[in-house]
C-alpha cells in the first residue's frame, strides 16, 4: 500500500478494515497474518478490560512466583500471559510462542501454523498497581522450519530484520494499538463503548530530532561511561527528563514527540536489562519504520545476532539525530 493510499485512508477506519485493505495490497497474502493481528487485538481488548477494573477485583499485587529473569511476577503479568497465549493458540496461525513469563518455547499444538510470536504480555510491571501506563509488546516471524513439523529454536533466532510484523498496545489514558508490517507505522485508538480499534494516527513519522530523554537516572553511577557522557550532554542542553518506567509508554511519547529512551548496560545489568526478542527488536523495527533508529551503543539493534530466547541487550532508541549524538560518546 503506498503512502498516498494510506494517507487517503479516512481516520476512523476500523482496525479490521485497515488490515483487510493492507492485505489486499499484498499480492501473496493469504490472510493468516491479518487474522493473527486480529487475535492479538482481541486479547488486547480483554486485557484492557482487566486493567481498567484491576483495583476492583483481586488482580493487583504479586503472584507469588518468579519468571525466568528472576523477576517477581505480578498477577496481571500472569493474567496477560494466559490471555495472549489462549488467543494465539485458538487463532490457528501460530505454531510456537515465546513469552517473558515462560522459560521455554510454548508449542501451540498447531504445527500447520506459519508464524511464531515473541511477546512481552505486560510491560511496565512495576507500574501495574499504581495506575500508570503499561503495555504489551509483540514480534512476529514467518517460520523457517517446514510447515507441519514442530517449530524449532531457529524459528526464533532469525534476527530483527526478519520480523514480518511488530507492535505494542499501550494501556494509558486511552488504549492504543501501534503496529507495522514493514509498510509504515499506524496507530489505532480503542473506543470502549463500541469495542473497536479505530485508525487515529496514520503513517506515523517520528521527528528527526528532539529534546526529551528517558532514562532511570537513579542508576546513573552504574551506567557505562558512554551513556553517562550522553546524559551529561542532555542535562547541559536542558533536554526534558521524562521517564515513566514503562518502556512502551516512554517509547510511544518519544516516537510522536521526538526523544530518546536509554537503558544502558550497567553493573547490575552488564548486558542491559531489556530483552532482545520481545522488547528491543519489535520497538527497533517500529522506530526504523517511522524514521527513527536504535542502537546498543555499537550497532543497530536490528543487526544484533540473537543467540538465546531471553537474551538481554543495552537499548537506546529514538530520534535519529539524538541517537547519532549518543554514538559520538561510544
Ligand atoms: O525500573 P527500571 O530499572 O528503571 O526498569 C524499568 C524498565 O523495565 C521494564 O519494566 C521491563 O519490562 P517488564 O515490566 O516487562 O519486565 C520496562 O518497561 C521499563 O522501561
Ligand atoms: Mg517489558
Ligand atoms: Mg513484561
Automatic annotation (TrEMBL):
Swiss-Prot/TrEMBL cofactor(s): Mg(2+)
Main location, first listed in the record: cytoplasm
Localization per Swiss-Prot or TrEMBL: Cytoplasm
UniProt name for this protein: Fructose-1,6-bisphosphatase class 1
Organism field: Emticicia oligotrophica (strain DSM 17448 / CIP 109782 / MTCC 6937 / GPTSA100-15)
CDD domains the record matches: FBPase
One Pfam family linked to the record: FBPase_C
PANTHER family according to UniProt: FRUCTOSE-1,6-BISPHOSPHATASE-RELATED (PTHR11556), SEDOHEPTULOSE-1,7-BISPHOSPHATASE, CHLOROPLASTIC (PTHR11556:SF35)
Name of the gene encoding the protein in the UniProt record: fbp
